[in-house]
From TrEMBL:
Residues 1-21 form the signal peptide. The lineage of its organism: Bacteria, Pseudomonadati, Pseudomonadota, Gammaproteobacteria, Pseudomonadales. It comes from Marinobacter salinexigens. This is PepSY domain-containing protein. It comes from the Bacteria. Keywords: Signal.
Amino acid sequence: MNKLTVFMLAAGVIAAPMAGAANLEDVRKTLASGSDYGIQEFRKIEFDDDHRGEKEIEGWMDDEWYVELDLDNDGQIRKEQRNRDRGERYGLPSSEISAYLEAAQSEGMSSFEEFKVNRRGHIEIEGRDDQGRELEVDFRTGSLDVVRIGRDD
């Protein structure tokens, strides 16, 4: 095996854990795309590891419409699905999500893979630390105090 092949294989192994992850600025741009579309409360944001650079956003536009968007790397809509009356409305505005992301970052998260909030107010942020290890930081709505930190070594 020549040196170039060894280098390319090593680069792929190092980059693989970062697939589907975004930095804080990328997450803010994704939130801005969702807000520009009309989402008022976000329930889930995911950086897809199946397709490079794609993002999935779910949330409420108003009291009637729940929307799911798939965005490409440039923030353009690839797929849109709207549903009326999807039950109880819950989620967070983009400004609150940013605060939780910053709090997760202060716990060592350097890249983000998924943000989600459930109807009971449990917030889960998944991502990676500077060494590429998986990290999950959990909160409750209304408080930036960390409820749980999970690390995969």
